[in-house]
Write a sequence for this structure.
């Protein structure tokens, strides 16, 4: 399996990790009764940490399909290269760091890491568009 597809598979696992971590912290804050309920009606406000985990998860799930498409495009087109491998690695490293930094609450670094992750996607797409 190519590096790009391996990173894509790891990215899928990381998506599930983010979902479960955010859900666990949310359930821990709101309690077991809320966690197993139908969750209708008013729910208590999220703590700052739960809010950051939920927003980081949402951000990941908004941009992950673009990465998936980029990897599939270069794989199907036969345009994988050292650049696409590096781009996939940059994307994953930046996304993991983004999640950690977002959870901790470091705003400027978070934005820079987001930009780096987008650059990683650009590195993956470059050979398909201009190679």
């Amino acid at each position: 399996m190519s590096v790009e597809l391996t990173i894509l598979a790891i990215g899928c696992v990381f998506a599930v990790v983010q979902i479960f971590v955010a859900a666990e912290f949310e359930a821990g804050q709101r309690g077991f009764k809320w966690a197993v309920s139908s969750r209708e009606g008013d729910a208590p406000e999220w703590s700052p940490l739960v809010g950051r985990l939920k927003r980081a998860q949402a951000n990941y799930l908004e941009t992950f399909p673009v990465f998936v498409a980029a990897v599939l495009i270069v794989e199907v087109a036969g345009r994988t290269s050292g650049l696409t491998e590096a781009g996939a690695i940059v994307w994953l490293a930046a996304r993991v760091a983004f999640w950690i930094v977002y959870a901790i609450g470091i705003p400027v670094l978070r934005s820079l890491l987001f930009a780096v992750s987008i650059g990683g996607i650009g590195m993956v797409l470059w050979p398909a568009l201009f190679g």
Q: What stands out?
A: The two ends are 22 Å apart (CA to CA).
